[in-house]
Amino acid sequence: MFQVFRNAWMDTQLRKKILYTLFIIVLFRLGSNIFVPFLDNSAISTMMGGASLLNYLDVMTGGSLGKGTLLAMSITPYINASIIIQLLAVAIPPLEKLQKEGEEGRKKLNTITKFTSLALAILQAIAFYFTLRNGYTDSNGVHTAILKYGDVREANPDMFAVVLSAIVIVACFVAGASMIIWLGDRINEKGIGNGISMILFAGIVSGLPNAVTYFVSLCKENLANIGFVLLAIVIFIAMVWFVIMMTNAERRIPVQYAKRVVGRKMYGGQSTHIPIKVAMSGVMPIIFAMSLMSLPQTILFFFGINGTGDTFWDGFVRLFSQSSPLYAVIYFLLIIAFNYFYVSIQYNPVEIANNLKKNNGAIPGYRPGKPTSDFIYNSLNKITLIGAIFLGIVAIFPIILALCVPSLQGISIGGTTILIVVGVALETVRSLESQIMMRHHPGFPEDTDYNFVRNEVASVHIRLSSKTSGCAVLDRLAEHIASGDSRDIQLFADYLSLGTLTCARSA
Predict the structure, then answer these.
(1) Are 301 and 316 contacting, i.e. CB atoms less than 8 angstroms apart?
(2) How far apart are the first and last CA of the chain?
(3) What distance in Å separates the CA atoms of residue 205 and residue 418, rounded to the nearest whole number?
């Protein structure tokens, strides 16, 4: 990986892209420290620990939500909008048609996603404002006001102040969310990697100094904690290694293309494979499951029920808190269920089989059509189960560790952040590799067909690291394989890890 960055830095064009990406990240971090007017930032930080969903969002935003800054909403509206549009594309034919229209269709879907994220940002900002307006009540019943100006709970509230503070706070949150989308677009146009992913990566990594400070303070308090800190570091390294290994793992289904003679030329006869990733759904099942598990606690928290009392609803909150063993069990089962659901809407075995048949391709030992689709379906189910168990283990291991060691309650969502950070890092490295290869950079395998990579990949002019781009490239790839206009397809697919042959549904 370090060699890739070194080679990229030696290239003038790539060096400019890297520096531009770093500049955008610096702007993002500066915006994360601009406080929204009329808010008590210390009171917001105290409130964040009262609801698991808010705490999770605070981690995803790099602590911006807990500090009440301009970028408190971060990329959550855009992520939610992307999920909604992706799910609707399965049920709404016009959206599904846009997915299959290539670059122009993706631009239109991206525009729809941006407007949807803006609407969600407004709704989320309004909801967060009402949450802040209600203030925070601790376990001792002591109420703390979060609004410094325009508090409606005052004896004789100034309605002008109430309205002004509401407009300013909501407008700041919405403006921050819009700025995040704009910064992500700038990275997509002139930077390296996926813009939104890089911003999410930067937000999560920004919390690393706080973790280091926490462990250093433990060692200063008691030297006996050094062993505990070393154990935590070893566990962290082991989890990173495990995530990298499983993220790169894939099942390769061999594909053979038949030979055909057109005139005086012979086409086809190539052998390739369909790579199916073990962790093909990424972190999305974990996000779905965590949102669903945190929803009851968060809703009750808005009504002032924090689980410290003896009422039925307080017990209900404690049942859905991360300190409950039942939470880990239900959480694990939901991750498996959502993983199967997400994969089912992403990949269509019938579509893949039909695409192979159209291009005179076949899986050895299976006839084209239904036998091929059944084989792909069965293989997909097996791989999905392994991937779901992997995601479940990564997600619940920090929770179980926190249950065994109460002092580690703060790492309950550490598995999710590791998945995101590792995934974005690998995606960025692949993006750099593809761009270096297109420039025929020395230092890579000499037997790689650079002409093929440069001509075919540069012609579609998209990044190979994303699923959408991979699908578009592979659709072109199938045509060239069928026409015999491809060289060293196996090495190309192996090196770039491009995803399934036809995956129009995996936007």
Answers:
(1) no
(2) 27
(3) 10
SS3 273: strand
Nearest to 249 by CA among 354, 355, 382: 382
Q: Is residue 319 part of a domain?
A: no
Query: Rounded to an integer, what distance in angstroms lies between the CA atom of residue 501 and that of residue 437?
Result: 21
Total-model pTM: 0.71
- pLDDT by residue (tens digit) across 239-263? 888 888 888 888 888 988 877 666 6
Pairing of strands 250-257, 143-144: unpaired
270 in any annotated domain: no
The per-residue pLDDT for range 380-426, each reduced to its tens digit, is 999 999 989 998 888 888 778 777 766 555 555 567 788 888 888 88
CATH label of the domain that carries residue 151: 1.10.3370.10
**Distance between CA atoms of residues 411 and 16, nearest Å:** 36
Domain, as residue range, for 128: 12-203
Q: Is residue 98 part of a domain?
A: yes
231: left (phi over 0), alpha (psi -120 to 50) or beta: alpha
Domain count, the chain: 1
Q: What is the DSSP string of 40-109?
A: -HHHHHHHHTT-HHHHHHHHHTTTHHHHTBTTSSTTHHHHHHHHHHHHHHHH-HHHHHHHTSTHHHHHHH
CA distance 421 to 290: 18
Residue 49 lies in a domain: yes
- The residue count for the chain: 507
* DSSP one-letter string for 453-471: IIIIIHHHT--SSSHHHHH
Cα separation, 112 vs 98, whole angstroms? 11
Rounded Cα distance, 444 and 28, in Å = 34
Axis-axis angle for helices 76-91, 103-134 (nearest 10): 130
